[in-house]
Backbone:
């Protein structure tokens, strides 16, 4: 409909149908009224035209249907509308200059529409006729195949059990595993099973399989369990090999329909990594650093085990024995030094130190779903609330799944309330599964649980400290898959910082600080078998990328042969001939990591390099740490998905990411 003060009005149909009309208004402003009524296809076409004719596209109407969108060159938008030369943007006192917030919001709008257009294109919106029909058919078949794949792995995992009845069969197993194995036995009909008397049932589920390989002194039983594990979903009516070939074939066809030469290229269209070559370069750089270290670690393990016949089912067992011998402590010994209330005080103190905000119990009441749930607020230097979060800290097996996670409850947004523009503050969920307090004994944490808490709070910080007012790009929203772990992994590094650790590690009964010897052992244990651990992840990532980028379904090489070929340079102990690991590789065949498994390492590079910025200025230099923390808040945490992750990282770091900090933190290169 016409609006006063505008030179000309036209229908959407006339604009879409008339190149001459578009040319007439080249470089101008197109105002679209009642934009919420546009179909997705018309919106897609309209924005492409705006790009082609270098116009600014402004969508008006219900903001809940379509947010206002600025289309065109992002740099030009900032200079023209915000009146800020781009040369000045990085020197602005971020969040203090009133123009800065306008810049952030302009970039957010730009990124939101770009993401919507990209996702629409990758969903086949631009296809027509038989190509569209074929694309849709592929989507449906891939969804069905992923379900079949996952079900086969689940059924094959459930089909195996190892029943133990004799004392020598459980030799070396820890109490926690015996309790789990007895519970499994009871669940499967052995009602009288106890951790002390058995029977005990070992399964291929991770909580059972992993500890059994680590602790069982029966080598023959370890071998049996291992061989069964690596052959899951590779035989009979649960065989996933044909499904794998079909998935890879369909993904390549899908990519070609969308104009990509491989599914690997299609996958990276949504990620921070610019192209397949950049990912391969990173993986190879890390491989060259980790392979020699992994060789040395394996040789040392054989020497420790006093055998040249160290097999796959022996590695976890002897690595755990070597760890115990080297560091002479286990996770349980540290629990008394990490009571949850004290750890939270340390975490909140670190947040105040780095980012200038204070965490405290919320003054306003909020509904909670359990008496143990706590509600906190984050306030700025003027004691004004800027965010809130729920903390659900304790395990409740009957009603909570295991693990720890952060999720968003409410996202930051600008809303009209009674004619007044207000900012809706973000609210996060932070869920853990700590042991509940018993009597006067608080919840006591392992060091690994402390790391997990810091990790999840890092995700929460990006959600809660965002300065973006559009939910589509606020906080963790619209952050590329391979960059979203940056704040969480960054926070983990602070667990090893002396000041941070000793500020919270005190014995819950005596108040004594953590002994220095334990701190040194924690630092040493961080690097234990790090070459092997990194090489294992690189093997998975390399196989994933090769299958989705270079593998030709019609070629002579099978997916299994691709894996075996790559194993020659990415494993120290080659896979067994019966190893059908791919048949249970759910991350890439039934999950979201297809051509994206590399993301784990990509994000680790970012987070390690971000923490290195604090190391470079000196972790004891309080003024420099505070300044660097503020810069991290103003970029990584504040900008969220409003700008490309590389732009955000460079704004914080002043350069592109480097791998040296990750290699140094992993003990694979010496500190300079």
Residues:
């Amino acid at each position: 409909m016409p609006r006063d003060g505008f030179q000309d009005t036209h229908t959407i149909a006339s604009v879409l149908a008339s190149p001459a009309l578009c040319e007439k208004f080249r470089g101008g402003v197109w105002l679209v009224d009642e934009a919420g009524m546009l179909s997705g296809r018309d919106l897609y076409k309209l924005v492409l035209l705006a790009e082609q004719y270098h116009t600014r596209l402004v969508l008006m109407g219900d903001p809940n249907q379509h947010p206002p969108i600025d289309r065109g060159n992002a740099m030009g938008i900032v200079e023209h509308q915000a009146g800020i030369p781009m040369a000045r943007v990085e020197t602005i006192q971020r969040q203090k200059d009133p123009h800065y917030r306008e810049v952030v919001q302009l970039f957010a709008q730009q990124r939101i529409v770009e993401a919507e257009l990209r996702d629409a294109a990758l969903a086949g919106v631009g296809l027509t006729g038989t190509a569209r029909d074929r694309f849709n058919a592929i989507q449906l078949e891939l969804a069905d195949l992923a379900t079949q794949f996952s079900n086969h792995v689940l059924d094959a995992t459930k089909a195996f059990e190892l029943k133990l009845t004799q004392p020598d069969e459980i030799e070396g197993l820890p109490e926690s595993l015996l309790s789990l194995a007895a519970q499994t036995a009871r669940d499967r009909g052995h009602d009288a099973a106890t951790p002390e008397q058995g029977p005990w049932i070992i399964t291929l589920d991770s909580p059972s399989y992993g500890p059994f390989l680590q602790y069982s002194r029966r080598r023959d039983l370890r071998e049996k369990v291992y061989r069964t594990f690596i052959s899951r979903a590779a035989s009979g009516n649960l065989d996933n090999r044909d499904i794998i070939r079909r998935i890879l074939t369909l993904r390549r066809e899908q990519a070609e329909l969308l104009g990509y030469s491989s599914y690997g290229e299609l996958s990276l269209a949504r990620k921070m990594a610019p192209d397949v070559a950049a990912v391969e370069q990173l993986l190879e750089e890390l491989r060259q650093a980790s392979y020699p270290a992994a060789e040395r670690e394996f040789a040392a393990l054989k020497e420790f085990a006093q055998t040249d016949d160290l097999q796959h089912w022996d590695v976890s067992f002897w690595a755990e024995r070597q760890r115990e011998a080297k560091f002479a402590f286990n996770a349980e010994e540290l629990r008394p030094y990490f009571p949850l209330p004290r750890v939270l005080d340390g975490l909140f103190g670190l947040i105040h130190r780095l980012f200038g905000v204070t965490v405290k119990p919320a003054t306003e009441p909020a509904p909670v779903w359990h008496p143990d749930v706590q509600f906190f607020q984050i306030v700025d230097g003027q004691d004004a609330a800027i965010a809130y979060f729920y903390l659900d800290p304790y395990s409740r097996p009957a009603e909570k799944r295991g693990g720890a996670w952060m999720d968003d409850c409410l996202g930051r947004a600008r809303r009209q309330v009674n004619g007044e523009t207000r900012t809706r503050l973000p609210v996060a969920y932070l869920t853990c599964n700590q042991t509940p307090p018993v009597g006067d004994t608080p919840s006591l944490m392992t060091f690994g649980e402390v790391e997990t808490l810091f990790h999840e709070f890092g995700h929460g910080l990006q959600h809660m400290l965002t300065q973006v007012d559009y939910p589509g790009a606020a906080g963790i929203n619209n952050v590329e898959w391979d960059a979203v772990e940056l704040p969480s992994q960054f926070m983990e590094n602070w667990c090893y910082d002396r000041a941070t650790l000793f500020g919270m590690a005190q014995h819950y009964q005596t108040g004594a600080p953590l002994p220095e010897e334990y701190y040194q052992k924690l630092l040493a244990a961080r690097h234990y078998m790090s070459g092997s651990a990194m090489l294992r992840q690189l093997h998975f990532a390399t196989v994933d990328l090769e299958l989705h980028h270079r593998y030709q379904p019609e070629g002579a090489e099978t997916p299994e042969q691709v894996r075996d070929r790559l194993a020659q340079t990415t494993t120290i102990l080659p896979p067994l001939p019966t190893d059908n690991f791919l048949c249970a590789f759910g991350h890439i065949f039934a999950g979201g990591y297809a051509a994206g498994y590399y993301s784990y390492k990509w994000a680790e590079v970012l987070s390690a390099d971000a923490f290195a910025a604090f190391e470079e200025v000196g972790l004891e230099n309080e003024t420099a740490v505070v300044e660097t923390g503020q810069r991290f808040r103003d970029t990584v945490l504040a900008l969220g998905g409003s700008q490309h992750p590389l732009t955000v990282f460079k704004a914080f770091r002043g350069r592109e990411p480097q791998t040296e900090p990750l290699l140094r933190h992993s003990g694979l290169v010496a500190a300079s």
